[in-house]
Each structure stands twice: as structure tokens, then as C-alpha cells.
Amino acid sequence: MATKAKTDTAPKSAPAPAQSAPSPLALAFSKAVKLVDSGKHAEAATALEALAKDAEAASDWTMKRRAQVYLSFTDGKLHPAKAAAADPVTEIQACLNRNETEEALKLSEKAIKSHPTMGSLHYLRAVAFAQVENVEGAAESLKKAVELDGDFVYQWHMEPDFNAIRKSPLFAFTEGR
User: Fold this and answer.
1) pLDDT digits over 113-168, tens only?
2) What's the rounded Cα separation, in Å, for the pair 63 and 80?
3) Mapping DSSP to helix (H, G, I), strand (E, B) and coil, where does residue 149 land?
4) Cα separation of 140 and 126, whole Å?
């Protein structure tokens, strides 16, 4: 007597969670960055000014600051005489926003040599290290930034670039602040 083999059906996998659509501010920022990257600085400046206002109205201070960084950059391109000396903080932030981590690290190292007591430079170096998941470098740089200006611990708590490494015990010094 022949028996039929049981055929087990594989359990169906759950559908992948839906990706949330980017916010209108994120879309506007992406569009403005593309204008900057393509050299359309006048159009980019207009878009970035509107974005900064919209971000402020939405209380999205991170987006407002990003728009201001790029607006400063475009202003330097549109008015070169005004931009005699490039602001290292702005240059580093622009590199980080474009995920040009190696360039951001080089610029931050150079700037820290010239301005070792400028906490924002140490913080930006920590962000760059966080982007490449260098926990030790990020923790060391963040610790120096917080020693120079305790307010950087608040930025650290909100900065998404630290999400992948935030739970490391090397960041224990930020607890309770």
C-alpha cells in the first residue's frame, strides 16, 4: 500500500514593516542639498531659507540648524568676498551631512590643533567617529566636548548618528546629566 508523503508547508513570513515616508522637511532638505551639489547656489539659498523657516515653525531645531549650515555654505559660494575664511565648524558639519566622514575627521583634527578648547570641534569629531561606529574615538571626543561645554551632552542624546553605539559602556559618563 502506497502512502502519500506529508508535505509541510513552510510558515509564511510576516510582511516587512512598511517604511515610513520621509517628512516634508526631510524631502525639502534633500532637494536643497541636490541644488547645492549641482552648483545651483542661488536656488539652493532660496530653498534653504524657506526650509529654515518651516523647520522653525515645526520646532524641528535639528533640521533648522542643518538648513543654516548649508545656507552659510551657499552664501560663501554666492558672495566669495564675504567668505574670506571658511568656518571650520560649518565645513565639518557639511561633510558630516554628506556622510563624508574621512574628510570631516581630517578637518576636525586640523581645526582642533588650532582651537583645542573649542568644544564644538570635539563634538563634531565624536559625530564623525560615530558615523563609522568607532566607539572609542566617539566616546573620547564626546567626553572632551562635554568637559569643555556641558551642553553637548544634550545634543548627544538627540543626535541620531550615535544610535548604533549609544548603549556602549564607554558613554556611561553621560548618564545622569
Assistant:
1) 999 999 999 999 999 999 999 999 999 999 999 999 988 999 888 999 999 999 99
2) 25
3) coil
4) 8
The amino acid sitting at 8 is D
Instruction: Quick: pLDDT tens for 95-104.
Output: 999 999 999 9
Cell of 93: 558639519
Helix axes of 61-78 and 24-37: crossing angle, nearest 10 degrees? 20
In this structure, which amino acid lies at residue 112? I
- Find where cell 583634527 sits: 109
CB contact at 8 A, 121 and 137? no
Question: Any idea of the CA torsion for 81, 84, 90, 96, to the nearest 10 degrees?
Answer: 90
Which positions ≥6 away from 152 have C-beta within 8 Å?
119, 120, 122, 123, 142, 145, 146
Residue-level pLDDT at 61: 86
pTM over 0.70: no
Residue type, 67: A
Quick: pLDDT tens for 27-49.
Answer: 999 999 999 889 999 999 999 99
What is the C-alpha to C-alpha distance for residues 21 and 19, in angstroms, rounded to an integer? 6
